[in-house]
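Course assignment 3, question 2. Fill in each field.
Student: A.L.
Task: Predict the tertiary structure for the chain below.
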Amino acid sequence: MGWRIKLHQFKKFIIHLITPISQQLGWDPKEGESDLNNLLRSVMLDELSSVDDPHTAAEAKKRFQNRDKVPIPADIRTMVYKQIAKESLEGYETILKIYQTADLQEEKLRALRAICANQNPDILKRTLEFSLSGEVREQDIMYIFFEAQGSGISRDMAWEFMKTNWTQFKEKLGKTGMLMDRIIKFGTESFASNEKANDIEQFFAANPVPVAERTIKQSIETIRTKAKWLERNRDSVAKWLAEQQY
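Answer field:
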């Protein structure tokens, strides 16, 4: 029998796995707790939001609506913004406005990362086009492509957008080797199929980027390693998820 990992099963598993940790940490910093706990809190809540945990979504919306009376802690603000941005066009527009009007660069970056959470293809296209609009600093463009790796839809669209608009990316980022290196890394390494590895390899063979040559090779190797892992373990993981009734 062939087994297939279903996304809803995996999401249920993640919620079951990390909800106890998140509940123990809570939403608000505690006096005297370690920096590691603060970091873990934001990671756990971000993960729960990414797998559509309804309790996390409800609390995030409540806190966003009440933000003028009770400020959202900085460590979880990006996660809250993501939750708002991904649920509707109205939410997306609200977070985009925060980006456009914020005075602090740190706040602008939170909002920029958050708008990538909306997985509607039309809105994703708008976000990707926004990356080259001139409203985004050159050094911040890579964060859009980093955040796009969290979903298969946005991951694929980001890579296709990068290929299609490669000339513009070279014009904007080509003078700074580190920026080219980072955007290539973030735009490629999260795939997990030999087909994508071949596509990336062929694209950069035709469009060489000497400053990122090592990164390109590492991304391709990483993708092929993950593809092998999936080929070897997909059935057993899918079977286990089904047996555990996720």
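Instructor remarks: The chain has two domains: 10-118, 125-246. Residues 125-246 form a domain with the Zincin-like fold fold (CATH 1.25.50.20).
Grade: pending
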